[in-house]
Design goal:
This protein has 370 residues and is an alpha+beta fold. 46% of the residues lie in helices and 16% in strands. The chain folds into two domains: 118 residues, 2-Layer Sandwich (Phosphorylase Kinase, domain 1), CATH 3.30.200; 231 residues, Aminoglycoside 3'-phosphotransferase, Chain: A, domain 2, CATH 3.90.1200.
């Protein structure tokens, strides 16, 4: 069978061929195709032929900044979730020696570095949305919230594998570093549109960060568990208005459950295209009610407590600042990126920051009515 190549890099193609056939007993590689979604890691669909059966797998090349112990944390969590009944995430395919990580020299101009690869089953279903495309049907919103509850439920009992952990600290420790990070970016801000928006709003961003930090002690005692930490419509696959796959667990960590819910609300209910419009009340209520109803049906998770409900509004602001941090870090640290694309992101998120500050009372009423 002739290998079907859809990569424009001969060295990378040869690397993937060698990786698959030297480390896995899955047959002969027949096709490889890059998956262009995602910002941080590189992903490929690979087809392996064994006994005249062709099967597709998902191959990930982790970003060079990702450490081995972070990948081991992700893999440990994925295995734990599946063992507790969360079957919507992809199974990890171990290599011939039983390891879930394969290390080989980096394929692109960094031969002195080791590259980390992992192979997963390929999740079927439709890629219908992205993190900025959120026009789900009501049934899809409901099911996405239910799946988040099920994910939290299945995280019970998780213990980090020896030597595995997430480098990024819990959100309230992490957010304390943003002001220093942003101040450094301000020194290097130039004359681009993103630079102007960032500089014009820097004082307000700092005010929002101070407001966020004031809740650190107040949050103590709220439920902490394994969270996805990047739960948005583009990281889900759908079929017949149901979520049939959840992926990109590489940002997962142990943190406040409320942060994961708030981040989900920011991603699922934010109105893109007009920065002044904020969040959709109908979808906020639908998402929260569906999450809480699902929690009532599960054994190891419960609906948001009164304390969590009372602090959901400030956590929404914190979740939005978390997204802004990612956008600014990418913009100021990645050469050659599409400025217009990041202008769209940054302009939206800063606009949402203002909206959240202006509508705290209204948001509190939404939460109480959910």
């Amino acid at each position: 069978m002739v290998l079907q190549l859809q990569l424009n890099n001969d060295r990378l193609t040869a690397t993937i061929c060698g990786l698959m056939e030297e480390n896995y007993d899955l047959g002969k590689l027949t096709r490889v195709e890059e998956i262009l979604s995602g910002y941080y890691n590189k992903s490929y669909a690979v087809w392996m032929s064994n006994d005249d059966k062709n099967r597709r797998y998902f191959l990930r090349l982790y970003n060079a900044k990702t450490s081995e112990h972070e990948i081991l944390f992700e893999h440990g969590l994925l295995n734990h979730l599946r063992s507790n009944g969360f079957t919507l995430s992809a199974s990890i395919i171990p290599s011939r020696n039983g390891a879930t990580i394969t290390q080989i020299p980096w394929p692109e101009n960094q031969r002195n570095k080791r590259a980390f690869w992992a192979l997963f089953e390929f999740l079927e279903g439709e890629d219908k949305y992205s993190w900025t495309s959120t026009n789900l049907t009501d049934n899809e919103f409901v099911n996405a919230a239910e799946v988040l509850a099920h994910l939290h439920h299945c995280g019970h009992g998780f213990k980090k594998p020896l030597g595995a952990d997430r480098v990024q600290p819990p959100i309230m420790e992490f957010i304390r570093t943003f002001k220093s990070t942003f101040s450094n970016f301000l020194k290097h801000a130039d004359d681009r549109q993103c630079d102007h928006i960032f500089k014009d709003n820097f004082k307000t961003i700092c005010k929002a960060l101070d407001y966020a930090d004031s809740f650190d002690i107040k949050f103590k005692g709220m439920t902490e568990l394994p969270i996805h930490c990047d739960y948005h419509p583009g990281n889900l696959k759908y079929c017949h208005e149901k979520v049939v796959g959840v992926f990109d667990f590489d940002w997962s960590k142990i943190d406040y459950r409320l942060f994961d819910v708030a981040l989900g609300l920011i991603h699922f209910t934010s109105i893109w295209g007009d920065q002044a419009e904020g969040l959709r009340q109908d979808i906020c209520n639908l998402f929260l009610n569906s999450y809480n109803d699902a929690c009532r049906r599960l054994n190891h998770i419960y609906p948001l407590t009164k304390k969590e409900q009372s602090y959901l509004v400030p956590m929404l602001s914190i979740a939005n600042l978390y997204v802004l941090n990612w956008e600014l870090v990418e913009f100021y640290s990645t050469p050659g990126l599409d400025e217009e694309e990041y202008l769209f992101y940054i302009d939206h998120t800063i606009g949402l920051m203002h909206w959240l500050m202006l509508h705290q009372n209204e948001l509190g009423i939404w939460v109480n009515n959910s």
